Amino acid sequence: MFQKILIANRGEIACRVIKTARAMGIKTVAVYSDADVDALHVKMADEAVHIGPPPANQSYIVIDRIMEAIRQTGAEAVHPGYGFLSENPKFAEALDKAGVAFIGPPKGAIEAMGDKITSKKIAQEANVSTVPGYMGLIEDADEAVQISNDIGYPVMIKASAGGGGKGMRIAWNDAEAREGFQSSKNEAASSFGDDRIFIEKFVTHPRHIEIQVLCDTHGNGVYLNERECSIQRRNQKVVEEAPSPFLDPETRAAMGAQSLALAHAVGYASAGTVEFIVDGDKNFYFLEMNTRLQVEHPVTELITGIDLVEQMIRVAAGEKLSLTQDDIGINGWAIENRLYAEDPYRNFLPSIGRLTRYRPPEEVATSERAVRNDTGVYEGGEISMYYDPMIAKLCTWAPTRSAAIEEMRIALDAFEVEGIGHNLPFLSAVMDHPKFISGDMTTAFIAEEYPDGFEGVDLGETALRRIAASVAAMHRVAEIRRTRVTGRMDNHERRVGREWQVRIGKADYDVTIEAYHGGATVTFADGEVSRVEGDWTPGDTLAEMTVDGAPLVMKVGKLSGGFRIRTRGADLRTRVLTPRIAELAALMPEKLPPDTSKLLLCPMPGLIVKVDVEEGQEVQEGQALCTVEAMKMENILRAEKKGTVAKINAKPGDSLAVDDVIMEFE
Fold first, then answer.
1. Tell me, what DSSP letter sits at residue 472?
2. Which of 114, 446, 570, 623 is the most buried (most CB within 10 A)?
3. What's the predicted TM-score (pTM) here?
């Protein structure tokens, strides 16, 4: 077994590999750019080597710099994680020439499967079901339009060397095919150094289901069931689960058999994933094979009890698999939510900055429940603009799917993140969505259910009453603390009133509170009674309450006369008023927000790549105005309505902050 391995990656996945290596008694080496000098993976590793400036193409994907780090430290093997060099055959070849083990598949398998065009041809030869498409190289946008018409819209335009949703576009007509081809080509060149593009039929009403395979160098292989990855945004997975709520044992076995046939056809060895699109009739079509560890591998580990990173290391060391297909079962249900540094209220655009507060829920692993958080950040650390915006993967496990979902709801509510925009509210909304709960979803889920973007959650009356009862009880505790501090009365609790009005948004609840040891009884004006229990004290940013025997977890911020409450995807401003103050407050005029309808504001921190209009030009609704690049993704900003450009305040090459004015309209 290896004595020392180097992790050619950063962030969450580097930390994940270090944990398993440490458990196996293997020393680890981290590499880091200028931006990651204080990163968590650097702190966790036994050694760390600086490899260059922040941009990945000057550090993490420069093979010579990684090879020099290997020479400096004497590492015997390299785990590439995912992304960066994980599917680069030149890197695998360089390691082989240096006599260093690659903790991944052979170079030939990477070349065959890493190129989506070649992989589809091999899949067809191995009798794996594939999606209709054009596998040849496409020279320009005109040819892309012609091919798209031959296949028939809608089509998927994809980067041959792509991954992680980058370099992918769906086109429904000629204009979108032309624009999508160029954007995909630009993103592919920027992210992977390979701008080849191919086009295939876009399967409508699809589910994205993938099979995890594990093979050794002795010809043995197993598949470790499937993962459902249909909840996607911009072709990037957001929520994954294992097993799929859609597959039956027969379809699972057929998909597994085809996945192994493909793996054996290319002499695969290590962990890998075969991705399929599955239609409503359970017909499945090969998409691609990822010759690396997947981001969503934890859900497979949770339902099988198999450490995939450990298995990868053992295979790379030449060991035979100790598992057979009969050893692979399905124990319970696991769900993964990806926590991204992106603002769901701004169309999920990337957010950067300092994590002023980062408190994940407590990790748990019992026979009844599990909470796991794979992360690469810490409180006080910086979220950089140079890398992927994912900062954590929150996973829950339980014996049943419904129980796993409930565990996830509570864990999301308990996850405290401050200082940056993040998608926790959106993830909570998905966990409560009827389509997700039923398991009846497709890859179009987000586009169909949130066509105008995410604008928060409107909680039902039952949920609002539970919050109102809790807020009333919390306010009572705060008032008792306040009277003790001021020392105005000996009997502090008697000084605090019993009757209050709780205002949540525009909803008002008149309540009466009766305290008892460890909690309070809250009676609403219509006679409904709630029993509230919890140990919240003023200053706590998390309230873990029980209302009528059911858990309620809320993130709490102090407001004048009330609290900011965030729970179940909702962000609520609450006030607790005496009856007289409530009367007067109702007479106060509402403050109107400023008018920004004639401004194009930068929706994220980013770089202006292109400006498509000129001052004085008339623009139409939907017309491209400019392109902003952030975290390796191009974002085209379009006109929301017809108008005339009065002033342009930014030019290509400018770096802008959120809400900087890009242009003004008459």
1. H
2. 114
3. 0.81
Q: Supply the DSSP symbol for 100.
A: -
In this predicted structure, the answer to whether residue 492 has a pLDDT above a threshold of 50 is no
Q: How many CB atoms lie within 10 A of CB 572?
A: 21
Q: Which of 11, 5, 113 shows the shortest CA–CA distance to 66?
A: 5
C-alpha separations of 478 from 163, 412, 496 in Å: 51, 26, 10
**C-alpha Rg value of the chain to the nearest Å:** 27
Catalytic residues, by residue number, are: 288
CA nearest to 449, candidates 165, 246, 232, 203: 232
Q: Are the C-beta atoms of residues 409 and 311 closer than 8 Å to each other?
A: no
* Calpha distance 376→391 (Å, rounded): 6
Are the C-beta atoms of 498 and 513 separated by less than 8 Å? yes
Q: What tens digit of pLDDT does each residue of 88-102 get?
A: 999 999 999 999 999
Q: How many CB atoms lie within 10 A of CB 99?
A: 7
* CA dist list (Å): 414 to 234, 466, 566: 27, 17, 10
**Which tens digits make up the pLDDT trace of 171-207?**
999 999 999 999 898 888 877 788 888 898 888 789 9
What phi and psi values does residue 263 have, to the nearest 5 degrees? -60, -45
Place of tokens 């990790």: 363
528 token code pair: 């409904």
What is residue 130's DSSP assignment? B
